[in-house]
TrEMBL record:
This is Uncharacterized protein. It comes from Crocosphaera subtropica (strain ATCC 51142 / BH68) (Cyanothece sp. (strain ATCC 51142)). It comes from the Bacteria. The lineage of its organism: Bacteria, Bacillati, Cyanobacteriota, Cyanophyceae, Oscillatoriophycideae.
Amino acid sequence: MLHLAQVKKNPDSGEMELLLLARQTSPDLWDTIANKVISCTIPRGFGDGVLVLVKLGNDHEIVEVKEAKDWIMGLVKTYLTDGAITPEWVQKEQAKVEQWRQEITAKSLDLTRRQLELETQKEQLQELEEKLNNGQE
């Protein structure tokens, strides 16, 4: 999984660590991480305070580390420069939001339908149980 991290020097051991700041959950979505530090061997050239993109394996082993400067500059160019947010870009983002809304609505309707089916089955089982109990008396 891809993470944004800051290289930090541990004041006690002097070893370099990664302070994980955020993790990518989908191509355009990131979640922030609160105070998660991992000790690891960091390639030379990444000094204290440098922001890096790090790909971690399942056991938090480093798969790949690269400087985050180009990635950050891409974000600046895409979202923060004059003219980056155009009416076309806004329309595209609105279309994405609408698609997500429709997907969530469909999932919600499906969950409601399943819940009603389960409630109906529960009532039928209770009625059957009552009939069986009444028949045994």
